[in-house]
């Protein structure tokens, strides 16, 4: 009796581990649901945190384009994920409107990230071009708030 | 009969998918076996490619120290993984010898590390592309499993060649 109960529990445990593994693989390689909190992407996304669907394939295949909204690991804090728009790819020249001004050529393997909220966004204007290897995925759909359902352009 | 064969095949297929998923999760979060090819880590690692075991936890927990050998995504090519030693952490100041003689001091910004290959003359590293965001680090190399005469832990100082 005890042996049967233990093997039931082990069976349930194994099923849970398999589920978790599959979800982890799916969210790392295919689709992930993430939240974008903060003012840096106003007016596109709200301050309190829109819930977005991110697809992983474009980044993995190198098919990111200027204008895409992406999730990326922050260059100044490895534990933080930021949500910004790609304003330039490697080889492009960006004219920086800031206190220092000037233009920046984006080196090989890097992109220029900028928040839609010009005045309240810490982005490449502050930390420079960002290595493409920090990009996690392309935001392509919003699922919350309900009135914001739809593709992210 | 056909139904039983199909469900056998589906059962095998599901078992294979479960195995692959588990191995993917394990190598992304726990341990990974990787190869370090090229001259940049001589004499510690050979040119032709030593096979190394990388642990993922130190990087995830932020417990990387100066002297650790790490695998990292290259800042200049997102598809490439490089194998270098950490010579500085955020806040440290690195003195870089320049070709013209003399040297410059570089302060490593927040969230970055300084990567350098053990092979001073033949390594493209932070001396070329600057401090590297820690988020590019994948794992800490802690054991070598090939070549056989090189079996053993990988330490925090450059070692003799095998």
Description:
Two copies of one chain form a homodimer. With 153 residues, the first copy, chain A, is of the alpha+beta class. Chain A has a single domain, classed as Umud Fragment, subunit A. Helices cover 24% and strands 33% of the residues of chain A. Chain A is built from three helices and ten strands. Chain A has helices spanning 2-29, 57-60, 124-127, and strands at residues 31-36, 50-55, 69-73, 81-88, 93-95, 103-105, 110-114, 130-131, 135-144, 150-151. In chain A, strands 1, 2, 3, 4, 7, 8, 9 and 10 form an eight-stranded antiparallel beta sheet that branches. A two-stranded antiparallel sheet of chain A has the order 5-6. The longest helix of chain A has 28 residues, at 2-29. The first copy, chain A, is elongated and about 75 Å long. At the A-B interface, helix 1 and strand 8 of A face helix 1 and strand 8 of B.
């Amino acid at each position: 009796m005890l042996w049967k109960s233990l093997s039931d529990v082990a069976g349930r445990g194994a099923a849970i581990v398999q589920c978790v593994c599959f979800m982890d693989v799916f969210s790392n390689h295919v689709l992930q649901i993430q939240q974008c909190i903060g003012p840096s992407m106003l007016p596109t996304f709200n301050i309190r945190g829109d819930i977005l669907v991110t697809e992983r394939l474009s980044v993995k295949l190198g098919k990111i384009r200027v204008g895409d909204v992406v999730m990326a690991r922050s260059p100044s804090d490895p534990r933080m994920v930021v949500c910004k728009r790609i304003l330039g790819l490697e080889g492009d020249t960006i004219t920086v409107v800031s206190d220092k001004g000037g233009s920046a050529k984006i080196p090989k393997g890097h992109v220029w990230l900028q928040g839609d909220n010009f005045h309240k966004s810490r982005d490449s204007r502050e930390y420079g071009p960002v290595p493409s290897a920090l990009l996690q995925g392309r935001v392509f759909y919003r699922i919350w708030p309900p009135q914001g359902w739809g593709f992210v352009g």
